[in-house]
Amino acid sequence: MKKAGGKGLAYIAVTEEGMKSSVAKNLGEDELKQALEKAKIEKGDMLFIVADKWKVVCDSLGTLRKTLGKSLLEKSDKKWAFLWVTHFPLFEYNKDIKRFDAMHNIVTSPVAEDMPLLDEGFSSTFGLDHQDHPWAKIRANQYDLVLNGTEIASGGIRIYNRKIQEKVLSVLGINEERARKIIRISFESIRIWGAASWRYRAGIR
Questions:
Q1: pLDDT per residue over 126-151, tens digit each?
Q2: What does pTM read for this prediction?
Q3: What is the pLDDT of residues 88-100, one digit of tens each?
Q4: Is 1 helix (H, G, I), strand (E, B) or coil?
Q5: How far is residue 202's CA from residue 190's CA, in Å, rounded to a whole number?
Q6: Which domains are seen in the chain, by residue range?
Q7: Burial bucket for residue 41 (CB in 10 Å: 0-12, 13-18, 19+)
């Protein structure tokens, strides 16, 4: 977890003897109950908590989930477990260069209802690294199919509106000359393959 940026891990466990927690001294009984209700924790379950920026929390708990999941799966009966992953973030803040990167690729389209956030981001008073910045909230029309923890297929809907593509490239800090080249190549492929094309590709090793 420390590699993911996490500074500490708290827990709340519900056992036959009652509630056990590493943060019981810091939280009141009502707060503990609210946390358990929010996470739908039942007897025999344990709730793990990380307090930090949104991305640090997600990365830290994601690392913990994979670590625990691997050991638990090794002890369980073998089965095929499929999972659809949808609505990835469109952008991901890059702290090294202090701007946003495309989480998947620069031609993936935003979810329709998140489109207003694209314009809001240019006038936002939040810093680019703030979790409430509009661009950090935009979801992408991107889909992955996962089997037993391994991605086996991926796809999405590309941008077919030139103005939207220009705005996305501007968010990514791509200069005007390079943006023109990208748009020319991208929209030439749209002319050949069709607008709003939905694609999915599977990988076999």
A1: 999 998 999 999 999 999 999 887 88
A2: 0.73
A3: 999 999 989 999 9
A4: coil
A5: 21
A6: 1-77 (3.30.1360.30), 80-205 (3.30.930.10)
A7: middle
